[in-house]
């Protein structure tokens, strides 16, 4: 055996011993509390014999004295078979017992010495090897595992050569490349005929004794050195592919050695052969050690003492004694680790909006005591013996479902859709509708709707009212995913109920016929009165009762607060803090913006004051009645303050209601995900007044300003470009701190 084989064998054995004896200990954290050392040593798991069996096939390639380069191409290799039984020692070492059988062979032709030797040998190998799979360096969870192997084996061979054809003619290889039955140099060579080899190896090489070696042994030892990869199919099946070089201790496999006679002389090295193979292995119930520990509850490496002291929610009570895991950090807890509940209402103090609820009181989900009316409502909702709270499903005469309350679609009455502006008479008619709303569908189309209802019946009632007021094209629609759809026609069998409910609601509450008659039409007058007194006194009814100074306007009049009329449409950011905003485009190209709908001048005036405080200093009250705009005096309002009667001019006049001081400009010099590059930062340091802010998308914006007018911002931008070199600087506009376009800012600065 040469020095290379010995060195490799020694290295692998030493590595295996070192890896198997390594016992790494964790480095103690100086900041952590030391744990008591265990007195009982960990006992190693007992050895369990769970072998894997494999069957494979491959090619035998011979490396010996034949051929010029002593190398056999794979395409002329012989077939071999492998039977393998293996057992894992640990995660990285595996012991294998195997047998190999097959044929080795070589056919030399036109060699430099023209000897033209050939042989074929039946071989049988039985051996042991050790496989190392690099588990120390690879991820634990992997599908492919490389390996190297080293072993020792018994090698038996029976070599024969092909000297005669099937008719007993000996082969003679002539210099012209032909094979004949007479030697080329024989006197009778002219009588030679060409023959073909039959590749039947009939002559025993040892028995021929051509070199005088006698009865040499046909059994020896060998050292196999291999490499390859294993692929895990599942817990029981593994696919393996690799190559193993078998270094034999004999030079007689091909019958030629360095001591052969004449042109048969070979090399000094021993014969060897390689097997390139693939195989399939079945594991008899043995899984990965890590998986087996998880399934069998083998927690030998778990420090249960440390787990007993752990406190994941950091409330001062160890997890083992904590009855309320996951308490937010910083919340006071009791001895059991549960948040404090001083009033005993089952809602901890940090979630309780009423910390001193009476003992045994009924509370809601925020810990607030429930009053008798709410308890009564919840009881009736739970019992629901009348069906007042039941899910309503309606069908047409074919049984098709028209409406299911479970989906809670939002119904409304469509009174018109316009691509161009509204004519004056239609604009004032729409503004006379108390519950009118506008929705911008695209840049040129606006849909106007009245009311918002949870059921189709109420929407139908509202539609009938609007038709009676002259809006004959009114229809019920619903909105879903930002789009409007026509609602199904209401069943004709319910028309009588619709009429009755309309009459009842009109009698029941005249002042609320605009908004409230569309919400509670599923019961009789008594139910409506009770519901309106309980829930609606806080909406429209408060316009006449909230203050002794409140002044009701004449019946059928709607008061609104107008925020201006502009030639260009303004974005929602300008009116972000304005409730119940209505946008109406007139036929002369103006965009009018209004807020609120009131039947009391007192409430309209309060709403206007609130808008003035938000910066809409030009806001004013307008009145609409019977489809026309009327003066506040005509509406019957008698305000106490003279300034409350300020009104604008005609409806086709531009009016700007915003405080121009709330319009500002800044010059953006850069926006970045993190810190700006060094060259950019150096430029910013030269600019006075650079500020840094975070955008809604999480970016960092650097700006200069603010500036009160566009001209100042423009001059600052040009200076930054010319003198500092910030060529990508540009101007931003803001209204009341909210970003708007430059065009909108200039529009707000007009007048």
Question: Quick recap of the structure?
Answer:
The chain is an alpha+beta fold. The chain contains 14 helices and 29 strands.
How would you explain this protein's 3D organization?
This protein is an alpha+beta fold. The protein folds into five domains: 3-14 and 49-162 and 202-288, Porin (Beta Barrel); 164-198, no CATH class; 393-540, no CATH class; 557-658, 2-Layer Sandwich (Alpha-Beta Plaits), CATH 3.30.70; 661-748, Sporulation related repeat (Alpha-Beta Plaits, 2-Layer Sandwich). 19% of the residues lie in helices and 30% in strands. The chain has an eight-stranded antiparallel barrel with strand order 1-2-3-4-5-9-10-11. Helix 7 crosses helix 8 (495-508).
Keywords:
751 residues, Porin
Low-confidence stretches: 13-44, 403-407, 492-551, 642-646
Query: Order of strands side by side in the largest beta sheet?
Result: 1-2-3-4-5-9-10-11
How large is the radius of gyration? 49 Å
Shape by Cα distribution: elongated
Count the DSSP helices: 14
According to CATH, the fold-level topology of the largest domain is: Porin
The domain tally reads 5
Question: Can you summarize the main beta sheet?
Answer: 8 strands, antiparallel, barrel
N- and C-termini, Cα separation: 105 Å
Please identify the structural class as seen in this structure: alpha+beta
Percent helix: 10-25%
Do you know the CATH architecture of the largest domain? Beta Barrel
